[in-house]
């Protein structure tokens, strides 16, 4: 899963958000390192909706413009959970390797 997709799904774990709200959350979650453009975001939202990972919660008109709110689906939450576990395993492996490196034992398990 690409980082922007991970961050969009993560942004929707709390409450339904409209596009600008998602953009703000993604920027905040990434500490400002991921700043999505509107075109990129809406393309991703369309793709994630087609995949069943998010759904339109509601639409409302604001200043004559349609604002669409998205929510995370159960399928999306499941996929995000799997990705969290994958990232956790990878981070744990990296941390263990760094600990071994600090002690001078740099051989990775299974590669000796």
Automatic annotation (TrEMBL):
<dbReference type="InterPro" id="IPR036390">
    <property type="entry name" value="WH_DNA-bd_sf"/>
</dbReference>
<dbReference type="Pfam" id="PF03551">
    <property type="entry name" value="PadR"/>
</dbReference>
<dbReference type="InterPro" id="IPR005149">
    <property type="entry name" value="Tscrpt_reg_PadR_N"/>
</dbReference>
<dbReference type="InterPro" id="IPR036388">
    <property type="entry name" value="WH-like_DNA-bd_sf"/>
</dbReference>
<protein>
    <submittedName>
        <fullName>PadR family transcriptional regulator</fullName>
    </submittedName>
</protein>
<feature type="domain" description="Transcription regulator PadR N-terminal">
    <location>
        <begin position="8"/>
        <end position="80"/>
    </location>
</feature>
<dbReference type="InterPro" id="IPR052509">
    <property type="entry name" value="Metal_resp_DNA-bind_regulator"/>
</dbReference>
């Amino acid at each position: 899963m690409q980082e922007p997709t991970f961050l969009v799904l993560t942004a929707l774990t709390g409450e339904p958000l409209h596009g600008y709200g998602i953009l703000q959350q993604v920027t905040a979650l990434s500490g400002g390192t991921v700043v999505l453009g509107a075109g990129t975001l809406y393309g991703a939202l369309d793709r994630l909706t087609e995949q069943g990972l998010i759904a339109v919660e509601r639409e409302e008109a604001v200043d004559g413009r349609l604002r669409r709110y998205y929510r995370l689906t159960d399928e999306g939450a499941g996929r995000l959970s799997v990705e969290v576990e994958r990232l956790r395993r990878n981070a744990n492996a990296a941390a263990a390797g760094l600990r071994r490196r600090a002690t001078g034992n740099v051989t990775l398990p299974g590669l000796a």
